[in-house]
Specification:
Blueprint (H helix, E strand, L loop, with lengths): L18 E6 L8 H14 L6 E6 L15 E5 L5 H19 L3 E4 L5 H11 L3 E5 L10 H8 L3 E4 L2 H11 L6 E3 L16 H6 L8 E5 L11 H14 L4 E5 L5 H10 L6 E5 L3 H10 L2 E4 L8 H8 L4 E4 L4 H4 L7 E3 L4 H12 L11 H12 L1 H19 L1
Parallel strand pairs: 1-2, 1-4, 2-3, 4-5, 5-6, 6-7, 8-9, 8-11, 9-10, 11-12, 12-13
Length: 396
C-alpha cells in the first residue's frame, strides 16, 4: 500500500486536549476497502485540532510504512508479529490494558469486529466509542455480544446510505446513531491518460479495440460484485461488438469457478483474468478500458467507481446497493439491475457504441471534476472534522 501522503494536512493545535485510540485491522501490508478507508481516516484525523495525541493499534501489520517523524502526535503499535493463533487474544488484551491505563477521550475503530472490547471499556470506564460500517462486515450480524456492542456505540459511520439503511433495519438501531461518511479516494493517483502501449502489448489488444474493465477481489464469499454477470452478458455483447475484450483485475478463491464459466461460454479469446495488479499499474488499467463495469448487488460503497470516474471513464454499477451513492443516483454513471444480464449487455453495448442517453459519460473532464468535488479527500476531511468537533463540544 502506498505511504500516506501529507497533502491538505495542517499542524495540530498545541492547546488541543485528550487522547484518541484508533483500532485498525491493518493498513500497510494488504490493500482493500477497509485499509484504504483507514488510511484516509488517519490523514483526516491528523488534520484536526481536537486530540493532542493518538495511539494507533494495527492488528495485522508488522511494521509502519510511513515516516513517523512526520506524525509526531501519533504512536503506532503493530501486532502482526504475533502468531495468528494468539494474535486476536494479544490484540484484545492490549486494547483493554491501554484503555484502562490511558483513559482515551474517544475510541475509534474502523472494523465492527473490534467493538465488543470498546463496549467493555465503555461499561466499566465510560469511554465513548465510534466505529465504521463498510458493507459485508455489517450484514446479517447474529452474535449477541456484537449486536449489543453496536447498540451501545456512540456513533456508527456508514460509508453509504445503503449501508446505513440496511444496518438500521437489520439491527433496529436509533437512526440518530448512524450517520453517512462516504468513502474518498486518492485524486492525484487517478488521472485521465491515453491507453498504455505496455498494457496493450501485454494483453495483445489494438488501440481501437473496445475494452470493459472490472476491478474486484475474486472471493467466493463476494460473488455479489457482478463480474460473473458481465461474463454471462459477453456472448450478446460480442454479437454487437465482435472485438470486445473484458479484463477482470483481481485475485481470489473464486477464480477457478470464473475460469470454468469462461470455458463453458467459449470466451477464452475475449476475457483476460489479469490477477493482482500493483498500485503503480492500476491507473493505467482504468485508462485502458472504454467502460468500467461492476454491477454489484451488495456492495457497501465501491471506491473503484470513484477511481474509474477520476480517470474519466463511463461507469456502470448496480441499482440495489452502495453504487447508488458512488454514482450519485445515476448522475455520474449508469445504474442497472444486477440480476438482469440482458440489461447489463444492452447498457454496455449502448455505451460502447456511443449511443448512451447520458451525455456526461462521454465528457471525461467533467466526470473527473464532479467526482473530485463530491468525493475528494478535502470533502471527506471536512465532513469528518465536523463530526469530531461536534463530539468535542458535546464532551466539553
Amino acid at each position: 500500500m502506498d505511504k500516506p501522503v501529507q497533502d491538505h494536512l495542517t499542524p495540530l493545535n498545541p492547546t488541543s486536549k485528550g487522547i484518541l485510540h484508533l483500532w485498525i485491522p491493518n493498513m500497510f501490508e494488504f490493500k482493500g476497502g477497509i485499509q484504504v478507508y483507514s488510511d484516509f481516516l488517519l490523514r483526516a484525523i491528523r488534520s484536526t485540532a481536537i486530540f493532542k495525541h493518538s495511539e494507533v493499534f494495527l492488528k495485522h501489520d508488522r511494521q509502519v510504512a510511513l515516516s513517523t517523524e512526520m506524525w509526531p502526535n501519533f504512536r503506532f503499535h503493530c501486532f502482526g508479529g504475533w502468531p495468528k493463533a494468539l494474535r486476536t487474544v494479544a490484540y484484545a488484551i492490549s486494547l483493554l490494558l491501554w484503555g484502562c491505563l490511558k483513559r482515551p477521550q474517544l475510541i475509534f475503530t474502523t472494523h465492527l469486529n473490534f467493538i465488543p472490547v470498546a463496549y467493555g471499556l465503555k461499561r466499566f470506564l465510560g469511554i465513548p466509542y465510534w466505529t465504521v460500517a463498510h458493507g459485508v462486515d455489517a450484514w446479517n450480524i447474529r452474535a449477541p455480544l456484537l449486536k449489543a456492542s453496536l447498540r451501545h456505540a456512540d456513533l456508527i459511520l456508514a460509508v453509504s446510505h445503503y449501508t446505513r439503511s440496511r444496518l438500521l433495519i437489520e439491527q433496529n438501531l436509533d437512526e440518530n446513531q448512524v450517520v453517512v461518511l462516504p468513502n474518498t479516494f486518492e485524486t492525484k493517483r487517478f488521472k485521465i491518460a491515453a491507453k498504455s502501449p505496455v498494457l496493450l502489448k501485454r494483453y495483445q489488444l489494438h488501440i481501437e479495440q473496445p475494452v470493459i474493465l472490472t476491478v474486484s477481489r475474486l472471493s467466493s464469499s463476494e460473488r455479489h460484485k457482478g463480474y460473473d454477470q458481465i461474463i454471462k452478458a459477453l456472448p450478446e455483447i460480442r454479437r454487437a461488438l465482435p472485438t470486445i475484450h473484458y479484463i477482470l483485475v483481481g485475485k481470489g478463491s473464486d477464480r477457478p469457478r470464473i475460469e470454468q464459466m469462461i470455458a463453458e461460454l467459449d470466451l477464452q479469446d475475449c476475457v483476460t483474468l489479469a490477477g493482482f495488479v500493483s498500485d503503480n499499474e492500476l491507473c493505467d488499467h482504468y485508462n485502458l478500458c472504454d467502460v468500467f463495469a461492476m454491477p454489484s448487488k451488495s456492495e457497501g460503497f465501491g471506491i473503484v467507481y470513484l477511481e474509474a470516474l477520476a480517470c474519466g471513464k463511463p461507469t456502470v454499477g448496480g441499482n440495489q446497493d452502495g453504487a447508488i451513492d458512488a454514482l450519485r443516483n445515476g448522475e455520474l454513471g449508469v445504474l442497472v439491475d444486477p440480476e438482469n444480464v440482458k440489461e447489463i449487455a444492452s447498457t454496455l453495448i449502448e455505451i460502447l457504441q456511443g449511443k448512451s442517453p447520458h451525455p456526461i459519460l462521454y465528457k471525461p473532464e467533467i466526470l473527473r471534476e464532479k467526482v473530485d468535488a463530491t468525493y475528494g479527500f478535502p470533502r471527506f476531511q471536512a465532513n469528518l472534522s465536523a463530526l469530531l468537533k461536534e463530539f468535542d463540544l458535546a464532551a466539553s
